[in-house]
Design a protein that fits this description.
236 residues; alpha+beta; 5-stranded mixed beta sheet
Length: 236
Amino acid sequence: MDFVFAAPPPVALPVAGSGALFPVRRVYCVGRNYAAHAREMGSDPTREPPFFFCKPADAVLPVAPGTTLELPYPGMTANLHHEVELVAAIGKAGRDIDAGDAAAHVFGYAVGLDMTRRDLQADMRQAGRPWEIGKAYDASAPIGPIHAAGGLAQALARAPIALTVNGQTRQSSSLDQLIWSVPETIAHLSRYFELRPGDLIFTGTPEGVGAVVPGDLMVGSIAGLGSLSVRVIERT
C-alpha cells in the first residue's frame, strides 16, 4: 500500500508463557462497576446499569513481568489517579452475546491500570461533556501480560484485586464484588458494539482510588494473574 506516511506499528501485548503477541484493536472501559467505588464517586450503584467509555489502542503500554514501567506524569492535570482493574481480552467476535456464552469469547485476562486525570474528568462531568481528556489521554492504560483463559474464569471469580502505592495498600477488594460480572459486562457491551478479536475490556475498579505524584511506585495485582509495577516520573 502507498501510505502518505509510515503507518504506526501495531499495539500488542505479550501472552504469558508464550512468545506470541495479542494485537490490540479497541479498548472499552466500564465505569463504576464496584458498589463501594460508585459510592465514593458520588453515585448510587443500585440504580445504574453499566456504562462505557473508550481509550485509544495506542494508550496501552505493555508492562513486562519483573520490570517497572516508567510512566511520565501527564500534562494539564494536578490530580492523577490510579485505578487497578481486571482486563478481559476478546478472542472471538460476536454481537448480542448471551452472558452464558460470553466466556467462549474471551481469549484471556490481565491486570491493568486505568490512569485518570481526575480533575479534568470532574470538570467535564460537571459540564455534561465527554470524559476523553480525563480518561483517553496518551499512556493512560498500562497493562501486564495476557494470561490465556483456560480455566481462569472460575479461579478469578472471587480473586483478590489490590493496588499499593510505595508499599502502602490503597485498593483492596475481590472480583466477586463487581456489580456486573465479566460475562454480564460482555453481554451488555455487545449489544452496542460488535466485539472482535483484539478488543480489551477494563472491567472496573474497586474503592480506594487516589492521587499519585512523580516518584510514587504503584503495584497492581490480581491473584492468578500476577502483578504489574509502574513508577510515576516527571514529564520531560
